């Protein structure tokens, strides 16, 4: 009978013998892939999953300088995106052909960036029309100032990412109804099941879905049709019913934009309950509201998740929670 050590060595020797035949499945984030093949003429299934990054300082301090084939995918204001490789060098390997790192750089970053990307607790809050009017709207105003939307305006005005734009109405031609479509910075632009595009409007008076009114319904329907048409034309392997359109609330930045995503895309935290609101649902909500053309999304309560390290929690909802507790205790 083989010893435990012999069994271990025998099992370890099987992986290098794997002869690849075809891909069975791959997750949209590219972290896991299922391969079919053979080991010693026997059918075999090999599941590869990216291991967590080691948190050892000696590894992380050396990693950026040792990445190979860093290629810039785009840069806009303080943001830049890259592909890089840390895998084995293959014979006659082409630059970036097998890049295995998608890299984002924010430089110089702010305290807000640090908070957003740090591990933090999450709260589920309800924003009433009154809280929106008195607390959140002023908060949005502050966060639209100080040049924080320069990178968006660079795209709209054709100063940055021009070559990435899939569709746009000519700048200024359609007045308040102009918009454009381009890949989301987090998409690798290769994995179709993970497709993620952004529709960005030209007008600057709509900060979020809160500013949408009944009078905007024809424009929203027109945009929805054009965004879908442009997507399936650019990526013919995708059909119309393989796309979902949604808006975030709260959004990451206060300039109205629409996400266009493949339905196979994994529903991560940015697409889950308390973050994403379907575009069709927004249109239907507006259609069924009682009132005239100026009736809109500012008149309803919205519930969503908010990070404990975010200014929205520390400056708005946490003080409201403290005040509510104080009122109850009196």
From TrEMBL:
Q: Which SUPFAM superfamilies match?
A: HIT-like, mRNA decapping enzyme DcpS N-terminal domain
In the record, biological process GO terms are: deadenylation-dependent decapping of nuclear-transcribed mRNA
Organism field: Xylaria grammica
Specify the protein name: HIT domain-containing protein
Q: Which molecular-function annotation in GO is an example for this chain?
A: RNA 7-methylguanosine cap binding
Query: PANTHER family of this UniProt entry?
Result: HISTIDINE TRIAD HIT PROTEIN MEMBER, M7GPPPX DIPHOSPHATASE
Active-site positions on this chain: 257
Q: Where is the signal peptide?
A: none
Q: Name one GO cellular component term.
A: nucleus
Name the InterPro entries for this protein: DcpS/DCS2 (IPR008594), HIT-like_sf (IPR036265), Scavenger_mRNA_decap_enz_N (IPR011145)
Family, according to the entry, reads as follows: Belongs to the HIT family.
